[in-house]
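Following up on my earlier thread - several people asked me to post the actual chain instead of describing it. Fair enough. Here it is, all 211 residues.
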Amino acid sequence: MHFSSNSLNFMRFPREQPCRGQEMTVPMPKQAPQLLFVGILTLTATVICLLLYALLWKAGNLTDLPNLRLGFYSFCLWDEGMGSLQCHQFPELEDLGVSRVGLALARLGAYGALVLTLFVPLPLLLAQCNSNEGEWQLVVGFLAVASMLLASGLGLFLIYTWKWLSLSLLGPGFIALSTAQALLILLLMATTVFPQKAEQARASLSTSLRA
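Reply from S.P.:
Thanks for posting it. Predicted structure:
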């Protein structure tokens, strides 16, 4: 049976298609880890900005109203007799039911989380540049401890001040800290998964190049 050259070219053509398809998918594994890393870096910067805003710019005040100001370093209640805010310190706060040790631990938790989060960007960049598993674990450790400190600090503060607070009275400082807490948990999950995804992408890229 005789086949023309055009027929032979047509018969060979389908075998070339998978090769071109494989070449088109090669860049994708390279880009995915880079985009994930940029997202992690952006979230880290966002958390730092939120903590700086709440703890420094707002001075740690979770409620700042004309008749009530409550924060890690402010405890001012409305005095009906004087017609103005009256700020309390220890030992007056102990008479109001606020524990000196509890408030100190709340401050340590909130501001300790800020300090630890400030240390995250440097090992994060080094881990990405060096592809070092130990540096990734250091980042995960910083984020895990920062998340636990912030949650415990915020929780302790609310426990001791809830009798004067309600959800409607909580201000921008509380919203910023709550958002930072949620993002820290998200960051912890992302940094835990990222090295595995990056390794899978490198293995996929290596396989595609060999093919």
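Residues 7-28 have pLDDT under 50 and may be disordered. That should answer part of your original question.
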